[in-house]
Write a structure and sequence with these properties.
The structure holds two protein chains of two kinds. Chain A is mainly alpha-helical. Chain A is built from 14 helices and no strands. Chain B has a six-stranded mixed sheet with strand order 6-7-8-3-9-10, with helices on both faces. In chain B, strands 2-1-4-5 form a four-stranded antiparallel sheet, with helices on one face. In chain B, strands 11-12 form a two-stranded antiparallel sheet. Classes of the chains: A mainly alpha, B alpha/beta.
C-alpha cells in the first residue's frame, strides 16, 4: 500500500459537514469533559496521584462491564464503579505510600472482575471493546445528558472547594493548621475525581483516561506555575485534545476516536516539555545567582 | 517575666497532660508565654514536642488540664496562630509560585475560587518585602532553595498578624548559613510585631541568641527556664536521670550524653498521628 492509499483508508472527508452536525451533542459533551478533565488534572498533579486515576479507571471499567452484563446502563455502571473505587482509596490509607498499595491491590481485582463480566456477556463484542477505547459517538442522547449533568456537578463542587482544596493539596500541613478540613476535602476530591474518570472513560476509554486527566496539567505545569494560568492552559489543552480528537476521527472510517485524543494530548505535552526545558534552566540559573550573591554578602559582612 | 499578672498571656497551659493510649508523653505542664517571648522547645525525638504544637493547633486533645491561646481554649483553625512547618522538598512542576505560598496564608482556607484583589496583592508584596523574598516571588516554589522556601514560610505564617508563631523544626535540613539567616529573620519579625514564638527544635544553637526561655522535655519530665538555667550539665543531668554534659565549643552549646535516652524514645511522633499527607 502506498502512503496515499493508507491515507485514503484512514481518512475520507466525504459528508464531513453532515457528520459534525449529527454529532453536535457528542462534541458538546466532549468539550465539557475537556473542561472537567483539564481542571481535575491540575489537582491530580498538585496531589501527585496519577496512579489513583489509573486505579479508579479500572474499577470504573469493572462497573461498566457489570452493567453491560446485567443489562443496566453502562454509563451509570461506570460511574458507580469509579465512585466506589475513589471512596475506598480516599478513606483507605493515611499516607501516600499506603494509598498506592491500596490502589495496587484494587486495580487487578477490578480488572479481573471486568474480565469475568465480559466473559459472561454474550452480546456484541464491539460494546466490550468500546469500554476500553471509548465510544462517545456511539452513546445515546440519554447518556449524553447524564454526562452533561455530572460534568456540571463536578464543576460546581470544584468552584466551591477550589481554594481550600488547592491549599490542602499543595501545602497540607499548613492548611490543616489553618483549620482547612484536609481529610474531608480528600474524600470530596476523590469523589469528584471518580465522577471525572467515569465521564472520561466514555470519551477515551479505560485504558486512555490518563490522557485527559493527567497529561493536560502535566503539560501546563511545564510552562507555568501560576495558579491561574495552569488551570486555564490545562483546560485549553484538554478541550483541544477531546474535541480535536473527535473532529479528526470523524474523517476516518476505520480509526476510533481515542488514538487521536491521546496523540493530540501527547503532542501538546511534548511541545510544552521542550519549551519548559529552557524555562527550567533559566530558573535554576537565577537561583544559583541568588545563592552566590547571598554568599558574597556574607563574606563582605564578616 | 515580671509582668505576668498584668495581661493575658498569649499562650497558657495548666496541668496539661498528653497521652497516646497508655503512654503519657508529658503531664503537669504549666506554662505561660508572653507576647513577643521566644520559647524554644527542646528534647529527644518522640518526647512530644511536635505533639505540644498539635495541642495548641487544636489537632490533639489534652488528656487532662487546659490549653489556652489569648485566654480562649485552643481550637482548630485559630487565626491567632501562624504555623511554620519543616522544610520539605517541593517538586519543580508543582503549580505554585513563591507568592502563592504566601497568599494561601491569607485566604487559602476560605471557600470559593477567590477573586483578584489589589489590596491582597499589596499585602502579599508587603509580606514578601518583609522577609526579603521579593526577588524570587514569581519563581515556581519547586525551584527555590530550602532557605528561600523557609523565608516564604515565615511570610506565610505572618500573613494574618498572628499573636504566636508555632514553628516545628523550621531550620531542619537547611545549611548552617541559611539556618542563621532564617532564625535572624524570624527574630526580627518577632521583635517588630511583638509576636510570641514557640520554636520546636533539637538544635538550639542557631536560635540561642534570641531565646528567652527553654522548655526541655525528656521522657515525660520537663524543665522550664532561661537557657542559662536549663542548658547546664547539672540541670540536664537531673532531667535525663543520667550523666549529661553541656559543653560550650566556640560559642555553641553541645549536649553530650543522653543519646541512650534518645534511642529509647525513638518512636517517631508522626507514626502516632492518625492522618497525615494528602492524596
Amino acid at each position: 500500500m502506498s502512503m496515499q492509499e493508507i491515507w485514503g483508508t484512514l481518512f475520507t472527508f466525504e459528508d464531513y459537514g453532515e457528520l459534525v452536525a449529527l454529532l453536535a451533542n457528542s462534541l458538546i459533551a466532549a468539550g465539557l469533559l475537556g473542561v472537567v478533565g483539564g481542571l481535575i488534572s491540575v489537582f491530580v498533579m498538585a496531589r501527585d496521584i496519577p496512579f489513583a486515576v489509573h486505579g479508579v479507571s479500572e474499577l470504573s471499567f469493572a462497573g461498566a462491564a457489570f452493567a453491560l452484563l446485567v443489562g443496566f446502563d453502562v454509563v451509570n455502571g461506570s460511574i458507580i464503579g469509579s465512585l466506589l473505587a475513589a471512596l475506598l482509596i480516599g478513606i483507605g490509607g493515611a499516607r501516600a505510600s499506603e494509598k498506592n498499595a491500596i490502589i495496587g491491590v484494587l486495580m487487578p481485582f477490578g480488572l479481573g472482575l471486568a474480565i469475568l463480566f465480559l466473559a459472561l456477556y454474550d452480546g456484541r463484542s464491539a460494546s466490550k471493546f468500546g469500554l476500553l477505547t471509548g465510544q462517545i459517538v456511539a452513546i445515546s442522547p440519554g447518556q449524553i445528558l447524564t454526562l452533561v449533568v455530572c460534568s456540571i456537578l463536578v464543576l460546581i463542587v470544584l468552584a466551591i472547594v477550589w481554594r481550600p482544596l488547592l491549599f490542602a493539596s499543595l501545602d497540607p500541613e499548613v492548611a490543616r493548621a489553618k483549620g482547612v478540613p484536609v481529610g474531608v476535602l480528600t474524600i470530596v476530591f476523590m469523589l469528584v475525581l471518580g465522577l471525572a474518570v467515569a465521564l472520561s472513560v466514555q470519551v477515551v476509554g479505560v485504558l486512555l483516561v490518563l490522557a485527559l486527566l493527567i497529561t493536560p496539567a502535566a503539560a501546563a505545569t511545564q510552562i507555568s506555575a501560576s495558579p491561574v494560568w495552569v488551570p486555564v492552559l490545562s483546560v485549553i489543552f484538554a478541550v483541544t485534545a477531546s474535541v480535536g480528537g473527535i473532529l479528526i476521527a470523524l474523517a476516518s472510517p476505520v480509526v476510533p476516536i481515542s488514538p487521536f485524543v491521546t496523540t493530540i494530548s501527547f503532542l501538546i505535552y511534548l511541545v510544552c516539555r521542550l519549551a519548559g526545558q529552557r524555562r527550567l534552566k533559566s530558573l535554576h540559573r537565577r537561583r544559583a545567582v541568588r545563592e552566590a550573591e547571598l554568599h558574597e554578602s556574607r563574606i563582605a559582612s564578616v | 517575666m515580671a509582668t505576668e499578672d498584668r495581661h493575658t498571656p498569649v499562650l497558657s497551659l495548666r496541668d496539661a497532660q498528653l497521652r497516646f493510649g497508655e503512654r503519657v508523653l508529658w503531664h503537669g505542664l504549666d506554662l505561660d508565654v508572653e507576647p513577643g517571648e521566644f520559647l524554644a522547645v527542646l528534647g529527644p525525638n518522640g518526647t512530644g514536642k511536635t505533639s505540644l504544637l498539635k495541642v495548641l493547633l487544636g489537632q490533639h486533645t489534652l488528656y487532662r488540664g487546659t490549653a489556652e491561646i489569648n485566654g480562649k481554649n485552643v481550637h482548630a483553625g485559630n487565626p491567632a496562630i501562624g504555623y511554620i512547618p519543616q522544610q520539605r522538598g517541593i517538586d519543580q512542576h508543582t503549580p505554585m509560585r513563591g507568592r502563592d505560598l504566601v497568599r494561601m496564608g491569607i485566604d487559602g482556607h476560605r471557600w470559593g475560587t477567590g477573586r483578584p484583589s489589589r489590596s491582597r496583592r499589596q499585602k502579599v508584596d508587603a509580606l514578601l518585602d518583609a522577609v526579603g523574598a521579593g526577588s524570587y516571588a514569581d519563581a515556581p516554589a519547586g525551584t527555590l532553595s530550602g532557605g528561600e522556601l523557609q523565608r516564604l514560610r515565615v511570610a506565610q505564617a505572618l500573613a494574618n498578624d498572628p499573636s504566636v508563631l508555632l514553628c516545628d523544626e523550621p531550620l531542619l535540613s537547611l545549611d548552617i548559613h541559611h539556618q542563621r539567616i532564617v532564625a535572624a529573620l524570624l527574630n526580627e519579625q518577632r521583635v517588630t510585631r511583638n509576636t510570641a514564638v514557640v520554636f520546636v527544635t533539637h538544635e538550639i544553637n542557631p536560635i540561642l541568641p534570641y531565646v528567652d526561655r527553654v522548655l526541655y522535655i525528656v521522657g515525660g519530665h520537663f524543665l522550664v527556664g532561661t537557657p542559662a538555667e536549663v542548658m547546664t550539665t547539672e540541670s540536664l543531668s537531673r532531667l535525663y536521670g543520667s550523666r549529661v554534659e553541656v559543653v560550650e565549643v566556640g560559642g555553641r552549646l553541645v549536649v553530650v550524653g543522653g543519646e541512650a535516652e534518645c534511642v529509647d524514645h525513638h518512636v517517631h511522633e508522626d507514626e502516632l498521628i492518625p492522618d497525615r499527607g494528602a492524596i
